Amino acid sequence: MSIISVNVSATNHQTFLLVGIPGMREYNSWMTFLLCVLYILTLCGNFTILYVIKTEQSLHEPMYIFLSILACSDLGLSLSTMPTMLSVYWFDSREISFNACITQMFFIHTFGVVESGILVAMAFDRFIAIRDPLRYTSLLQNPVIGRIGLAVLARGVCVCFPVPFLIKRLPFCRSNLLSHSYCLHQDAMKLACADTRVNVFYGLIIVVCTLGLDAVVILVSYILILKIVLNIASHEERLKALNTCVSHLCAILIFYVPLIGVTVVHRFARLLPPIVHMMMANIYIVVPPVLNPIVYSVKTQQIRRRIRKMLQQKKIRS
């Protein structure tokens, strides 16, 4: 046993290798350009949402405060992955240290769980707004929203806190080549040359108790919302009530569809070409933070009006 442990420790990797476009490095410059555009849109879009909500007094309502928390989560997710993704595609610098990898892994999974929790909070917000519109702002006052936000953040940190330690205890004495241009728990775990059943089991617990449970709660919330809306006598009032949920429904699809796609890709890894892994992984990380502010800017009249006013003032000054 001692000889085996010495051999394993001697070959234990202290770095991982990230992957760009498999077998097509000549296209890395195009991917770099696309990523730069998407990251610029992410930063501009989410910071614009935060600025508009902060400066516009009429947007100091629960729905928009939750939206600002969602924007912060999207920014955190993007900033967690931007350095490694751009270094891989722009400079072809694919090496990442073991500690940097597990740190990035922690933040990616934490922000993913936080975003899912915020989507649940926003579903609860829509349910309260439609069920009891007269008491909406009194039920969801700023202290209540603050406690919900802290609870969502604490849940994300607590459930993902053991992940780096579960990975760090594993020896990596085979390949150190990851499947993506950033670090994920399920990706790194496959490279370990030891029993990973604890990691698999804990990863399954996280998925079921956070993302899975959140999806069920959101579904139940919208069933209740639909039941309330169908009891509204006026056709126009029904459409008005449902219209307030469109942006949130889009945000749910934007978050869960890529997440399901990445999960399916990892499940059938051997049957799919490597480029499918790369595409789904990049879509999962890059696309939701880009689309969320666009959807809310287009579908929310108050935000759209405020942005238009800002652009007009800038044009007049110039």
UniProtKB/TrEMBL annotation:
Domain G-protein coupled receptors family 1 profile: 45-296
UniProt keyword list: Cell membrane, G-protein coupled receptor, Membrane, Olfaction, Receptor, Sensory transduction, Transducer, Transmembrane, Transmembrane helix
Organism domain of life: Eukaryota
Subcellular localization: Cell membrane; Membrane
CDD domains assigned to the protein according to its UniProt record, in alphabetical order: 7tmA_OR51-like
Residue intervals passing through the bilayer: 30-53, 65-90, 102-124, 144-167, 200-225, 246-269, 275-298
GO biological process, one term: cellular response to lipid
GO molecular function, one term: olfactory receptor activity
Entry's family note: Belongs to the G-protein coupled receptor 1 family.
Name of the featured protein: Olfactory receptor
Species, as recorded: Eublepharis macularius
